[in-house]
Structures are given as structure tokens and as C-alpha cells.
Amino acid sequence: MEGLVVAADSPAGRAAEAINDLTRHLPEPGEPNACPTCAGRFWPCEYFDDAAYRVHTARLRVGDIVPLDLHPRLWSPSAPQDPRAWPSDTDEETDRG
Hints:
By secondary structure, this protein is mainly alpha-helical. 38% of the residues lie in helices and 0% in strands. The chain has one domain (11-90).
């Protein structure tokens, strides 16, 4: 884990609470199936999904925050997820217009 200082008025600064919530629910290395915060819940848990949605609505990429080794679990067809949190890259183009 690393700390990072960003400007409060930057996109990451405005989404700091959502980013903190998202990272709090990332699984521990070597245990990609369990949420370390939600006892007995599989990962990605609903709290992670909610935080990921808030990160996305702040126009940040969830994949830039989540470690690369977890990406296959996020975008696999069997991943339990809220579809609002995982728009395709092409959705960003339509969001602007």
C-alpha cells in the first residue's frame, strides 16, 4: 500500500472518499475471492461495486485503481457485479455527448 497526495480539486481529489472505500474492499494478496472488510463475503462485494460505481461517475477508470491481477475477476462473465460499475470503454465516449 502507498499513500498519494493529490490536489483536492482534481478528479481523484473529488473522488477520494470513493477511492478509499474501493481500496478498503480490495482482497488481500493471495486471497482474491474474499473481501477483507466484509466478513464472509465473496469479492467483489456489493460495497466494492458501489464504490466502483462512484469512482466511475467521477469519470475515473476503476481499472487504474484495482491491481492488474484482479482485473480478470472484475470483468469476467461470472463476476458478481453491479453492471452500472463496469461500463465499456466506448461508454465513456457516449457519456461526453
